[in-house]
Structures
1.
Amino acid sequence: MSDKKLSFFDLTKDDFREILSQHGFPGFRSAQIRRWVFSRKTPSFREMTDISKSDRAKLTGLFGESVFSGRQVTETASDDGTKKILIEWPDGHRVEAVLLRDERDHRTGCISTQVGCAMGCKFCASGLDGFVRNLSRGEILEQIVRLNTLLPEPHRLTHLVIMGTGEPTLNLDALLPALAEATSPDGLDIGNRRVTISTVGIPGGIDKMTAADLPYKLAVSLHAADDATRSQIIPQNRFFGIRPILAAAERYFRKTGRRVTFEYILIAGVNDSAADARRLAELLNRKTAIVNIIPYNPVPELPWETPSARATLAFVHTLEEAGVQVKVRFRKGDGINAACGQLRRSYRSPAAE
Ligand code: SAH
């Protein structure tokens, strides 16, 4: 008999119930196990103490020691409470997921949607080795559950950002069912409005999200206010240009009524001048857009630099003067390679060689 196990998180709730019933488990077991996993943060079958020993042994036979398919390779923590984990899947490929905590007591999970990334943004560590494969629905959900399980009782994840490795709009078929479980009352019960999907800005991908009438927030990685600059750092921009992306974001706003966040990483000498700030203000619809300024997080292999705090504040000030709503996100996780894609690169897996 093959010892390939079933993947708990790849099964829908109904499929899980069905499989348990086929194997002769009592009807209430599926809800009981889901409660252990999602509410009681107990992934290991052995520790599900109100389940009979024989059923626990049967579950281990079907799924393995725990509901997780992957193996956690490392966990790193920084002083600001950021934790980063690297997970290796049975095929040897690895992804990273990050837990961020802030002064407002937000506990935010940042998760990956793909192994590697095909977008090739020039400033980003995730795309340096190219694209490997999409993650499955279960692999996405497992990252979220693992981050939630890291939190000491009675804490739970309060927010989710789809800002790890990968382009989410190219893997919506796996991402959306995973998010449905993460936000479901009998899943992790994270508020819909506390989930943000960040895209490099593919108009067709944004339109797919609009058509699905999602309850989530949309963030677009704009990072430049003119096509020449944007194409220099985001090669995908050559295919679409900024205008069609803004038009798609506007359609998302009209359908959902939720303002769209435009992320703008400030890179010294590339996109951080006063003229850039003024162009950005002219480009955006002040009523529907929020700008999130993020000082660039340097990647050792890459030449880009972070502007000074003074230059950052001047940029923010120019936007505010022009009536744009601005948030500034200072870096978290310094010292633990928490910048996008860095951990995965510093711990190469055999599959990545
Ligand atoms: N592909 C999606 C989501 C993953 S990247 C997207 O492009 O939005 C999440 C965010 O991190 C994006 O805004 C991305 O441009 C940004 N990012 C990537 N590398 C970074 C770095 N070194 N410093 C700061 N932000 C970075």
Note: The pocket of S-adenosyl-L-homocysteine is lined by residues 119, 121, 123-124, 163, 167, 198-200, 221, 263, 265, 294, 296-297, 299, 339-340 (CB under 6 Å).
2.
Amino acid sequence: MNNQLEKIKEEALRQIQASGTLDTLNEIRVAYLGKKGELTSVLKSMKDVAPEDRPKVGQMVNDVRAIIESSLEETKAILAKKAREEQLKAEVIDVTLPAKKSNVGHSHPNTIALEELERIFVGMGYEVVEGPEIEYDEYNFTKLNIPPNHPAKDEQDTFYINKDIVLRTQTSPVQARTMEKGKLPIRMISPGRVFRSDEVDATHSPSFHQVEGLVVDKNITFADLKGTLAEFARQLFGEDTKVKFRPHHFPFTEPSAEMDVSCFKCGGMGCRFCKGSGWIEILGCGMVHPHVYEMCGIDPDVYTGFAFGVGLERIALLKYEIDDMRLLYENDVRFLKQF
Ligand code: DAH
């Protein structure tokens, strides 16, 4: 028995010595000390030992068990330390390495132009209001004094969803929606996407953006319109910018005008940029038509006001000297990076 125990001990210690990992160490523990382990089976065979020898043999088994256990513990501590060191070595970070360069994104020219526009009008006390891109024909046309069968409906090649619902062709329907709410006075701008079934070229796209403006209050005159839009032009294109109003026609304003700004490239002398005229067309505007007030529940004998509509892409193209609108939608980062 003594011999057998001695052999078990020697073999166990040899295996513990040779074990390189915590896993094999655990296997060794199970093989010797587990329920079906070698040492445990020796204990089980105690019944064959003469009763007077049992305490002695029991003591010997316990001694061997203690030796194996302490060797297991010792080796486990060494292996755990080694494993931790290896892990730390593998995960080491070289803090002297240069960091990877990451590209920082920035705003699209349309967004920059819109933020500039909003800054100017919010600074003058305007509210920013949004409206739906999918719009009733009634708001997009009828309430803006464009009755069914009016030729203006052809001018704005409309995408119809059904006979009553369209993709809005302009941001002007937000005027009607805001007036209908009846909270007066109104001083608002409404930026947003609009749609027309246009062919794509350097100055056209089936989807682009407009910013609508509307002021309704008592005693608002054409002089207020001129003063406001002239100030807007100066803030957008520079202090020396001059403005000029040309008579025009829009169904929802009377009188209507288009506003030109003096060319900020040549100062009005005439250049390639302004096609030699010294002026650049910038927006449509006018005094809100009495019919529009009536259809939106406002008394035109008490209230007056003006409205305007600006093409956002047009502003972005002019301000950042981009000569093809398609560049704004391709989203080529080499292009976008420049702004
Ligand atoms: N909605 C017009 C367009 O798409 C632009 C416009 C012109 C808006 C005059 C207005 C306005 O509010 O008064 O061509």
Note: Strands lie at 127-128, 134-136, 165-167, 186-195, 207-217, 243-250, 253-262, 279-288, 304-311.
